[in-house]
Design goal:
This protein is an alpha/beta fold. It has six helices and eight strands; from the N terminus they run αββαβααββαβββα.
């Protein structure tokens, strides 16, 4: 009987561990966000993992299109876009030219901002969020954000130690109106945490659902 209980407990723990949760940590929206709904959006998942890129871009693009917003996944237009490529003046000019030639006037960019690995006993974490004091000054315009996306603002996560190791991935989705003057391009910022993702398609689906719900909230 004790052996059976141990086996049962083992599978319960494994089930909890493998069931990744997705939480919207912070949302900021410009008062002018509704003015851009008629624009043409380019959806970018900033990763050199093609499978992850396609999964996230496709889900976000489909969700936007379902709401009547014209959106295109970047992998269909710019399949060789390299997020890790060195930014030069020539590359800056190339990116701007590509967007202008394809008549994109809005961009939705998703980036992995941080990964925290920890030993925990509880899923109750406090996310110390400094971001609201930086909106929209930190983000500036699309081009400056895209060229320098990894500026480190202190983000603190505290938890209680436990017997297993888990990982939390922090994703940030940012929307820009690139037709607006630099400094007034930011439309929205959604910061989301994902615990122990183990299936990119399911994660992308759930992430997009949480993202869209955050964006449509009043």
């Amino acid at each position: 009987m004790k052996k059976l209980l141990k086996i049962t407990l083992f599978f319960v723990i494994c089930s909890l561990y493998n069931c990744g949760s997705i939480n919207v940590e912070d949302v900021w929206k410009s008062p002018n966000i509704s003015d851009s709904k008629d624009g043409r959006f380019l959806v970018i998942a900033r990763t050199n993992n093609l499978t992850n890129r396609i999964a996230f871009e496709r889900k976000i693009t489909d969700a936007l299109n379902s709401k009547g917003i014209k959106a295109v996944s970047s992998y269909t237009k710019f399949p060789f876009l390299d997020p890790d490529a060195k930014i030069t003046d020539e590359r800056k000019a190339m990116i701007k030219k590509l967007l202008e030639e394809e008549n994109f006037n809005c961009v939705v960019l998703t980036s992995l901002k941080d990964v925290k690995e920890r030993t925990t006993t509880s899923s109750n974490y406090y996310y110390n969020d400094p971001w609201d004091t930086f909106y929209p000054r930190y983000y500036g315009g699309f081009y400056s954000y895209y060229y320098y996306p990894y500026y480190n603002i202190n983000v603190n996560i505290s938890g209680t130690e436990t017997t297993y190791t888990s990982k939390t991935y922090y994703l940030e989705t940012v929307a820009f109106d690139i037709d607006a003057p630099d400094g007034n391009q930011l439309l929205a910022v959604v910061t989301t945490s994902i615990d122990n993702p183990n299936d990119v398609q399911k994660t992308a689906t759930k992430y997009t659902k949480e993202l869209m719900e955050a964006l449509v909230q009043k």
